[in-house]
């Protein structure tokens, strides 16, 4: 709807609701971006921070003054410049005073200004006092020297500076964070000396690359001694793109057998870290650690002592686990999003950032010099008038005393300008009478030299550049300090796996026919002798260690796995496998296996097909299991058999008809999954009718013996005896002796 077609109602404009909402949201968005959330590149301050610093300077709260109640400062800020909540304003003041939040604090606080454990635990503003620190002079020192534009405050009764004439790139020094509408900023703090060094390099060499500047600005410098472990190449990429992330890691030392954490990453709470470690200890996930205590005091702000159980504990591995699982190692987002000199938000790389700031600094210095030049020229002009008055003192005094309008008379008589005449008239006669030619000419000479010097600087880009450089170096010498966050490239921390945390003990995994599972300690357990639920009994038992995985196969050939140490104790009846896994409806579990990932197993079906596979292929995270053995219709999964030596061992297969075949297991392929190859020949008609099946499989080492259990009888076959049953893979084999053809189970001797 155009302005012409809009209706007016009693002098009020009417606009469509959608247009109003769109405009209101846009106005709000721009206000958040420009006037609240994002800092200005020039002075590195958000409006509320700028107003707090300015209000404190107006109250005379400089570094040498006596501090005043913080409520007084906040009252001035929200009353004169910042129509927002007092709590938010006070929080911004506190942040600038916290030495653990700001690398170079702008405010010196007295009272409770929070702690590293809880930065927001500061006292109310009526209980704290504050004043500016010496480094705040970097922002305020040139304020009254024509260096800034002034804008009216919110109600138009006062004026406030639009920015601060910063002598250093403050935004890089202290960094900042902010969330605006649709964008955010995260700028880490840096070392003052490094930043100034980069500025000087860019002044000397405008064509310097970001790689050149990174020789000076090596990385962020947080107000903590925690290590920055991000590789130099990644840091360089951050400065090239203006975005990325920085990783910081706690510093620790060894004291006898103890581990002492001496520094935490930026804004990490010691209390929270201790709680994270204690929680793992309570959950028995840190068996290597006996105790944790906090020994922090005024001399040692961070001192967390970890007491290992013994001196055999691998400290590097333990700390790596803690770095990976707690806030002892933390990542920080970086986003150099600032309001540039053009008043628009933009993500800048390091070179663009420093180049724009140096342009801002040059403009500030030129404005300061011009302002001073105007003052000098005005004073010289006035001194010229004073000299004329001195040389004609009697006549001047006579005119002032006798004339009703002395100003035009003085101007006509001595050729004075209006400004000179007014200055002479404003000077008391007693002071005029005391004028000395030497003093006037001496001041003129000094001011003339200063004027010449300023004009020389303004006329020469080289001299202007040198002045900016000298001022930067002087401030660096005055306020600079050594780097606090060491740059140390380290590999990524690895958490200790749950299996590593569990003590390695022999266990027997017992599965019942109805699918209940439990874990018994030791290998001497009699699985059949355990108590079972009514109507239930032993299905299968496998032996292994508590640090291994236990795998369970269902009737369809799918495999399911879980850590053995997580299974319930054999003191009870255990738990149903269906509580951990989700097999297909109506499908039960038929067997199990345990071993190391690289251990080989023989996996086969009752139809005489099988293959060798690593135990790793049994395991997986899927609750629905993974397909492992493909079965023909009517075939069953046989219990997997461990293969000690795939190159040398022999495979022994026995059918229900008493046929036995032995051949080198190397003839069988090694697969990850599938149906496998034929092991023992069974006539198809007998398979189809169910008359004959493979009922037993085992492996025998070369030269070993085999024991067959046939009811109450036993048959021991020596290696020589087995040679009578040797044949090629997939052949029929030879029949066992009469009376030993119904084999119940087999085992190597």
Task: Explain the overall architecture.
The protein is 33% helix and 22% strand. With 749 residues, the protein is α+β, with helices and mostly antiparallel strands. Among the domains are: 45-165, Topoisomerase II, domain 5, CATH 3.90.199; 251-327, Gyrase A, domain 2; 364-479, Topoisomerase, domain 3, CATH 1.10.268. Helix 3 (70-81) packs across helix 4 and helix 12 runs antiparallel to helix 17 (437-459). The longest helix has 42 residues, at 350-391. The chain is rod-shaped and about 155 Å long. The mean pLDDT is 92.
- Distance from first to last alpha carbon: 97 Å
Number of strands: 37
CATH topology of the domain at 45-165: Topoisomerase II, domain 5
Total of DSSP H or I helical runs spanning 4+ residues: 21
In spatial order, strands of the major sheet run: 12-13-15-14
How would a crystallographer describe the biggest sheet?
4 strands, antiparallel
Could you report the average pLDDT, rounded to the nearest whole number?
92
Structural class: alpha+beta
Task: Please report which band the strand proportion falls in: under 5%, 5-15%, 15-25%, 25-35%, 35-45% or over 45%.
Answer: 15-25%
What is the top-level CATH class of the domain at 45-165? Alpha Beta
Task: Please name the CATH architecture of the domain at 45-165.
Answer: Alpha-Beta Complex
CATH superfamily of the domain at 45-165: Topoisomerase II, domain 5
Share of helix among residues?
25-40%
Model regions low in confidence, pLDDT < 50 over at least 5 residues:
none
User: If you compute it from the alpha carbons, what radius of gyration comes out, rounded to the nearest whole angstrom?
Assistant: 43 Å
Gross morphology: rod-shaped
């Amino acid at each position: 709807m155009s302005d012409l077609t809009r209706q007016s109602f009693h002098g009020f404009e009417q606009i469509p609701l959608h247009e109003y909402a769109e405009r209101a949201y846009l106005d709000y968005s721009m206000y958040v971006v420009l006037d609240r959330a994002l800092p200005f590149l020039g002075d590195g301050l958000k409006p509320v921070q700028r107003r707090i610093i300015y209000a404190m300077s107006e109250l005379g709260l400089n570094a040498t003054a006596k501090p005043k109640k913080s409520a007084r400062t906040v009252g001035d800020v929200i009353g004169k410049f910042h129509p927002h909540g007092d709590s938010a304003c006070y929080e911004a003041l506190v942040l600038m005073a916290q030495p653990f939040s700001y690398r170079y604090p702008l405010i010196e606080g007295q009272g409770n200004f929070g702690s590293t454990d809880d930065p927001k635990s500061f006292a109310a503003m009526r209980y704290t006092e504050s004043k500016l620190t010496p480094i705040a002079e970097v922002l305020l020192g040139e304020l009254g020297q024509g260096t800034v534009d002034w804008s009216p405050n919110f109600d138009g009764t006062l004026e406030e500076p639009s920015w601060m004439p910063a002598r250093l790139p403050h935004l890089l020094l202290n960094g900042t964070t902010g969330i605006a509408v649709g964008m955010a900023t995260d700028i880490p703090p840096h070392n003052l000396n490094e930043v100034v060094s980069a500025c000087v390099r860019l002044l000397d060499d405008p064509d310097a690359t970001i790689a050149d500047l990174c020789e000076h600005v090596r990385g962020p410098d947080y107000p903590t001694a925690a290590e920055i472990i991000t590789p130099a190449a990644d840091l360089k990429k951050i400065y090239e793109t203006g975005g990325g992330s920085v990783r910081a890691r706690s510093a620790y030392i060894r004291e006898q057998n103890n581990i002492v954490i001496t520094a935490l990453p930026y804004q990490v709470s010691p209390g929270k870290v201790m709680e994270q470690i204690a929680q793992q200890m309570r959950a028995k996930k840190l068996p290597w650690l006996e105790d944790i205590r906090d020994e922090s005091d005024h001399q040692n702000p961070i001192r967390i002592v970890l007491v290992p159980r013994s001196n055999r504990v691998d400290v590097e591995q333990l700390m790596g686990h803690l770095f990976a699982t707690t806030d002892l190692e933390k990542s920080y987002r970086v986003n150099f999003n600032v309001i540039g000199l053009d008043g628009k938000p933009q993500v800048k790389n390091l070179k663009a950032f420093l180049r724009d700031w140096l342009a801002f600094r040059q403009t500030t210095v030129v404005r300061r010099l011009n302002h001073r030049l105007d003052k000098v020229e005005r004073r010289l002009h006035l001194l010229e008038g004073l000299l004329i008055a001195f040389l004609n003192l009697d006549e001047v005094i006579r005119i002032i005393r006798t004339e009703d309008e002395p100003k035009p008379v003085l101007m006509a008589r001595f050729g004075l300008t209006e400004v000179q005449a007014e200055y002479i008239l404003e000077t008391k006669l007693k002071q005029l009478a005391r004028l000395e030619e030497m003093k006037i000419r001496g001041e003129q000479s000094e001011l003339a030299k200063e004027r010449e010097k300023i004009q020389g600087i303004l006329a020469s880009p080289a001299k202007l550049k040198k002045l900016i450089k000298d001022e930067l170096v002087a401030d660096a010498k005055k306020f600079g300090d050594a780097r606090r966050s060491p740059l140390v490239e380290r590999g990524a921390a690895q958490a200790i796996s749950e299996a590593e945390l569990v003590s390695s003990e022999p266990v027997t995994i017992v599965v019942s026919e109805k699918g209940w599972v439990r874990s018994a300690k030791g290998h001497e357990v009699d699985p059949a002798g355990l108590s079972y639920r009514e109507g239930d009994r032993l299905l299968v038992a496998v032996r292994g260690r508590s640090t291994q995985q236990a795998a369970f196969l269902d009737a369809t050939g799918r495999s399911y796995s879980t850590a053995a140490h997580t299974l319930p104790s054999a003191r009870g009846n255990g738990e149903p496998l269906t509580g951990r896994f989700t097999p297909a409806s109506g499908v039960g579990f038929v067997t199990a296996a345990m071993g190391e990932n690289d251990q080989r197993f023989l996996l086969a079906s009752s139809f005489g097909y099988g293959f060798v596979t690593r135990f790793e292929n049994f395991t997986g995270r899927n609750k629905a299991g993974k397909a492992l053995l493909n079965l023909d219709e009517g075939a069953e999964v046989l219990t997997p058999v461990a293969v000690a030596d795939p190159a040398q061992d022999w495979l022994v297969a026995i059918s229900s008809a008493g046929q036995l075949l032995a051949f080198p297991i190397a003839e069988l392929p090694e697969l990850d999954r599938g149906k496998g190859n034929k092991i023992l020949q069974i006539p198809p008609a007998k398979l189809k009718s169910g008359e004959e099946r493979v009922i037993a499989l085992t492996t025998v080492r070369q030269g070993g013996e085999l024991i067959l259990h046939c009811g109450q009888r036993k048959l021991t076959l020596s290696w020589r005896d087995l040679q009578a049953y040797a044949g090629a893979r997939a052949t029929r084999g030879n029949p066992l002796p009469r009376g030993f053809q119904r084999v119940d189970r087999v085992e190597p001797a």
